């Protein structure tokens, strides 16, 4: 019922504007929303990369970070890049509602033309070097963007990783975890501000009026799993919070990994998550490929913090 009450006024407004809407915005104002928690090891690189790629402002919701993430966000707010920081104290995980709140702020307060709803472990890459240019050429309301998972490389910052994963259709043949990075990746969407109704969980879909979609050249490099200790710390923290608050969202995989942690088998499972148990075979079969796109971009644009 709440979603209906929220969407109805937006639907009415979209219907009224429909006859006057433009098919494209040549030089769009692009705002990125970010939902983060304890992302100090990648937060600054994310902001640097996307600002270089043409993002004109960031709206960030921080959900109880304790690791220095907020210090980074405040520093970039002083520089004018981060437009708003929402400190969300909830211990539940209401991702869809929190992202929707940021989208409406991007539209109403910061007059966005296009919006990208991202996570801190994602880098949205435009082959032209400018996300605004790619979106400005788009005549649809929604651009579907494919995602590619990157394989962790111990001892290197994530911006130096160069091993891109190609999904495996039969993971059991490679002794992979059911939550392996070799699972097929769902793409995400960038969307126009005009005609926005509501975002879906995970930012994989968006309701728009009119709902016109194209698959564009923008692609997402997804650093979903960190190095071993980062992964273990994150799974333990998430599992403990889920157990304490009995959350529902994301519960299946958190419970899976937290159970293994309590059985002292989480480090072993990490090898199956990132394919270390069958790495040579995965490489020989073409499921691990070299891709230096992001590393080269950071080097060529001198983006290291």
Annotation keywords:
305 residues, alpha/beta, Spore Coat Polysaccharide Biosynthesis Protein SpsA, Chain A, 2 domains, 3-stranded mixed beta sheet, globular
Describe the structure.
This protein is an alpha/beta fold. It is built from ten helices and 14 strands.
Topology of this structure?
Elements: H1 2-17, E1 30-36, H2 43-52, E2 57-62, H3 69-78, E3 82-87, H4 95-108, E4 114-119, E5 122-125, H5 131-136, E6 142-145, E7 147-149, E8 163-165, E9 188-192, E10 196-199, E11 206-208, E12 213-215, E13 219-222, H6 228-245, H7 251-262, H8 266-273, H9 279-284, E14 288-290, H10 293-300
Helix pairs in contact: 6-7
Summarize model confidence as the mean pLDDT.
91
Structural class: alpha/beta
What is the string of SSEs from the N terminus onward? Answer: HEHEHEHEEHEEEEEEEEHHHHEH
| Total number of strands | 14
CATH topology value of the largest domain:
Spore Coat Polysaccharide Biosynthesis Protein SpsA, Chain A
| Poorly predicted segments | none
The amount of beta strand, in percent, is 15-25%
Oligomer state equals single chain
- Architecture of the largest domain, CATH level 2? Alpha-Beta Complex
Number of helices: 10
């Amino acid at each position: 019922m709440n979603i209906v009450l929220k969407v109805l006024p937006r639907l009415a407004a979209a219907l009224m504007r429909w006859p006057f809407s433009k098919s494209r915005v040549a030089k769009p104002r692009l705002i990125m929303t970010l939902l983060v928690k304890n992302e100090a090891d990648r937060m600054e690189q994310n902001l640097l990369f996307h600002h270089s790629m043409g993002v004109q402002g960031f709206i960030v919701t921080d959900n109880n970070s304790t690791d220095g993430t907020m210090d980074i966000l405040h520093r970039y707010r002083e520089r004018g890049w981060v437009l708003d920081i929402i400190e969300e104290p909830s211990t539940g995980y209401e991702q869809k509602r929190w992202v929707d709140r940021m989208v409406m702020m991007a539209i109403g307060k910061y007059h966005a033309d296009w919006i990208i709803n991202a996570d801190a472990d994602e880098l949205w890459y435009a082959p032209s070097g400018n996300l605004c240019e790619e979106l400005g050429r788009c005549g649809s309301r929604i651009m579907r963007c494919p995602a590619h998972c990157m394989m962790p490389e111990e001892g290197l910052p994530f911006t130096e990783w160069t091993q891109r994963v190609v999904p495996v259709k039969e993971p059991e043949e490679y002794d992979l975890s059911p939550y392996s990075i070799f699972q097929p990746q769902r793409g995400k969407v960038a969307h126009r501000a005009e005609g926005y109704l509501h975002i879906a969980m995970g930012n994989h879909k968006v309701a728009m009026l009119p709902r016109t979609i194209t698959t564009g050249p923008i692609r997402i490099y997804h650093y979903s799993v960190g190095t071993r200790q980062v992964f273990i710390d994150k799974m333990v923290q998430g599992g403990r919070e889920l157990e304490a608050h009995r959350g529902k969202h994301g519960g299946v995989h958190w419970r899976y990994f937290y159970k293994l942690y309590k059985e002292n088998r989480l480090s072993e499972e990490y090898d199956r998550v990132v394919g270390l148990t069958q790495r040579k075979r995965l490489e020989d079969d073409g499921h691990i490929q070299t891709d230096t796109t992001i590393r080269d971009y950071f080097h060529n644009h001198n983006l290291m913090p």
